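task queued by scheduler; priority normal; single chain, no ligands, no partner chains; default sampling; output format set to structure tokens
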Amino acid sequence: MLFASTRPSGTASVREGNRRPVRTRRLLSASIAALLTTSLLGLASQATSAAPQPSPTAAGHDPVVMIPGMTGSPSNMDPMKSNLQSNGWRADRLFTWTDSSSMTQDLAKAAQQLAAKVDQVRRQTGADKVVLATWSASTLAARYYIKNLDGADKVSQYIGFAGPQHGTTNNGCQWYVSCQQFASPNTPFLKALNSPTEVPAHDKVDYLTIRSTADYNAVPTNTAMLEGADENYLMSGPMAPNHFMIVSNTTALAKMRSFITAHEAA
């Protein structure tokens, strides 16, 4: 609108021998244009300085890779993803994923695919490390990756929801290879994974487990604990979530967020 108001209305006829009015108008137009340019630059500068800047904490979060359990779909982790985003995590640093078997086959092979996913996320985001937010069977694949596939150099935090870290007595799913691997505390897979420590590379990786007394899949309740973890968080009482609701439970997600931010600042 400003430029439109300075433009002459109509088309004026100018004689060949009388150029002064034209030159005057050109000088006037140039002066107005310069003044407007200066004003607009000043306004742009003010707008830039007044615009809200991203929070250094929000911008600085490590990317989070969220992984469902056996037979799960990445969409199962959408409530967690939405919760993080609504609490300051950038959408371009939040990833849901599972392996090609949906955690139903050899969890060591799932860990190999996880290694490729972590590398892809690091390339895409430019981050040095990622946070692994895992659930049920994927808690084991992620620990295998950290322990055996150099994941410790690429993972800052490990968060395990309702993991059968020491097997489960609810193991009637053994037509799946992965279920055979965590069918009891003494399976070859778990014995190797839990020895000599349950928190591999603890000097590099922070560990949180979240478990619930209302979980009837990862049982007994303490199977989801890791000896030596930074925190083993127990949910109990009438509002405690079951195995399937724990990854969307607001209290559990608040615990995850507070753990991440506290250990980022440490």
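post-processing summary
- Confidence is low (pLDDT under 50) at residues 1-58.
- The chain is about 40% helix and 10% strand.
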